[in-house]
Amino acid sequence: MSDSATYGGKGWHLREASHKQDLNQGVGWMSCGLSSETAPLTDVLLHIPGDELAFPEDPDHWLMLERPDIQRIQAEAQGLADAYTAAGVRVHHANPSLSPPPNFLFQRDLFFMTPEGAILARPASPRRAAEAPLAAQVLAGLGVPILATPRGSALMEGADVLWLREDLVGVGVGHRTNEGGHDLVRGVLKEMGVETRSIPMPDRGVQHLLGLVNLATDTLAVVREALAPDALMGLLQELGREVLFLPDDAEMLEGLALNFVSLGEGRILMPGGCPQTRARYESAGLTVSEAVVTEFRKAAGGIGCATGVLSRGAMR
Length: 316
Known about the structure:
The chain is an alpha/beta fold. The protein is built from 9 helices and 15 strands. It has helices spanning 19-25, 70-86, 131-142, 179-190, 230-238, 250-253, 275-283, 294-298, 303-306; strands spanning 41-46, 90-93, 111-114, 117-120, 146-148, 161-165, 168-173, 195-200, 213-215, 220-224, 242-246, 261-264, 267-271, 287-291, 308-312.
């Protein structure tokens, strides 16, 4: 019996591959992960909303600006999925077993993806508390490892956490993500050799770090000029990033022109109806595609908010 493999006998073989290698080889897990906001996009997670948007309360109760039209927002969500598919990106759908709260359509907020799996969010608003368990269910169903879940008083939303470099992540700390949330992200990433930097967020006028800065390429950052904190600008300067400033005009404030997603290789997918900003992006050398998200804007979000990024390929 002592020679049996189950007791460490000669038939026993130690597992040698790392968890990250398991992901790459598809050993039970989805091949997922990323360490960049701008490497070629391969897999995204979207939710096409349903009857959860037929809520009786005032839209402000659910942190929305207006009441979205259900049929129109469903068509827009499908159009967004089609735009990703046309760009060669695999689209996965977030369909939990229970009807989700109205803001579940904003998948970016509900997790932060690392090279080895996801860190689950813990949204700051009690209106969104029920979203995290449903996001965990969806991620687990896809085979995405959940590396950590915020506990205690920690708050973290995925749109506050951005990859600035392969070994550096910026964390917006404010009313959506607190110091406890930053500590959680920092602890997980430290084990991967990745540093984090805290970026204090303005008290009003913006939801997440993604509303202040977005990465179009590995050298170009797009910044909301009016609210950009000194800590953010100093960090971008330290990294040697070229900065494209956007003014607080109608396209920024109402069109959510900053709320794009990088497809990789200088391509971005941005909200439609923002011709002046599109011209700025194209003048900066970007190749631009658009998707209509008028109803998403009523819910106070756009393309970047709606897109949970699961995987990106290697930079070329």
